[in-house]
């Protein structure tokens, strides 16, 4: 009999050690994140690490690029307007020749228009590209510039005020206007239109319903940017921001909130890297896709919402798992220590403690796997 208290104490000690094993606690977070990231890949979301899901969960604002993000990224030339002696066909031919050395969406659209009209490229050399502003080249012995108004003015070319009304009407129609200058004078303009993505408006609306601030960040003319923003419901517009300045704008916004940047071009890469979360689309440039934390492989803007819902769902599971692990330890450890032994004569044997410990771990893993049965894109923005 003298050995019974010692044996009982040993059994209780072993039971406490077994029941206190933090297996469930250690599985609570990684299992949920593993399921969340794997579900993301199944739904066309390339999520680069479990910490990315946490970043999505913390967002307070979303910044959108315009061309190729809110729009489909396939602009078309709608207007080719010349003044002076040059004909519209010659204007288009010169523009296509200057753009032949670039892969910018606007340049590709101009080249495509010239090909449709069977206009051959002219002899050109000394190409120079100013990212986000324009291009220039020597075309058959003449210096030709093609770009936005500000850049051409910086090159010493000015626009006749008589054309302001025409340019204004093109801008208000949401068309991007590029100016062509020859030998020191602006000879005409080309206007290009890019259609909105079909899911752009509902994506922006859903983000705003969830209390996120939505911002349009673009290098385009303010009137063009405002026209696009009004179509999708964005009220805050930052226009005429050069590629080199986008990262600085994002950094300034980060002083008051955590923001995501959604973009697709080389020009967006610094801003994608600077943002708390970078999101790129499948058709983006390699640089943008490498820089982004999430790549929307389905090329659907609505997947921004899907990513947010997946993050919220994952963190619900993490919280549920942690609450279960905490509750399990709170009740099971005192029982293993024999708190019910004096009053009810109940105690947990080491074998029973091992069973409870295994059950706790299985419960956490099972709860994480239940995430697979949730429908994302529809989850309300509550956390518990």
Total domains, how many?
2
What order do the strands of the largest sheet run in, or round the barrel if closed?
Answer: 1-13-12-11-2-9-10
Helix content: 40-55%
Report the count of strand segments: 13
Give the C-level CATH assignment of the largest domain: Alpha Beta
Looking at the structure, the CATH topology of the largest domain is Rossmann fold
- What is the succession of H and E elements? HHEHEHEHHEEEHHEEHEHEHEHEHEHHH
Overall pLDDT, averaged?
Answer: 85
In CATH terms, the superfamily of the largest domain is HAD superfamily/HAD-like
In short:
49% of the residues lie in helices and 18% in strands.
How would you describe this structure to a colleague?
It is built from 16 helices and 13 strands. The radius of gyration is 30 Å and the shape is rod-shaped. The chain has 384 residues and is of the alpha/beta class. Strand 9, helix 10 and strand 10 form a beta-alpha-beta unit. The model is unreliable at 379-384 (pLDDT under 50). It has a seven-stranded mixed beta sheet, sandwiched between helices. It has a six-stranded antiparallel beta sheet with strand order 3-8-7-6-5-4. It has two domains: 22-72 and 197-384, HAD superfamily/HAD-like (Rossmann fold, 3-Layer(aba) Sandwich); 76-193, Calcium-transporting ATPase, cytoplasmic domain N. 49% of the residues lie in helices and 18% in strands.
